[in-house]
Amino acid sequence: MRRAPLYLAAIMVALCSAAPFLWSLVTAFKQNRDLYNPDNNPFLYNRPPTPDHITYLFTNASFGTFAWNTLWVGVLVVGITLLLGLPAAYALARLDRPWAGWFGIAIFLVYLVPPSLLFLSLSRIVVAAGLQDSTWSLVLIYPTITIPVSIWLLIGFLKAVPRDIEEQAMVDGYSRLGAFWRAVVPLTFPGIVAVIVFAFTLTASEFIYALAFVSPSSEKVISTGVPTELIRGDVFFWQSLQAATVLVALPIAFVFNLFLDRFITGFTQGAVKG
Predict the structure, then answer these.
(1) Which domains does the chain have, with CATH numbers?
(2) Would you tell me which of 48, 125, 209, 270 could form a disulfide with 153, CB atoms 3.0–4.6 Å apart?
């Protein structure tokens, strides 16, 4: 009974946190006459629910194309981030140089530069590469955001791995690369999960570069395709917008909660240690 107020407070916080998502879920199935009547309860169906707005999302708004573009761009960005960030972080974590720590901090400071300041220089790179109005431009640009944070995160995590583990692996016959892959990478898995979640979430939510570099509807990702297709002047396809919110949030929330413990471990150990 002494813990009852604590549990009650936790339940109230959970309900308040879930309220926007629940409202979006209810709104996605509401009829127009139900939604736009101010006398109706926004959390209840005052008229029978309808799936028409979700159907409209796939048949008239190219949501499937946006989702596919977001998926493959996110997977490629995550792959590039790990391919470049993990070896760079390992090198900086193992370098016996006085400037290694400062260099790692300098790499992280790149992430703090506002995207609006980098827009002109990155647009020149996109044009020079011939990737304007192509989703591939996002694959080129997004790693410039994800790699610095990933290196900073993994440096702290790799410093927590004792050198003896690699040395023992090399004594057993592995090369340094083999020792890194077979002995160090499995121990840094929580940090790798944190990098994967961070990179993919940022890729799926980034708006400025996706809006500036990609114009054709067939090349857009969810962050720009949904609002540009479902907001036409002063006409808002509100239920379809909320349906898109739910459909994007559900798989990301599922994967996030699946690896929640490892994600938290990766961020806390990577940020505190080293």
Answers:
(1) 1-50 (no CATH), 51-272 (1.10.3720.10)
(2) 270
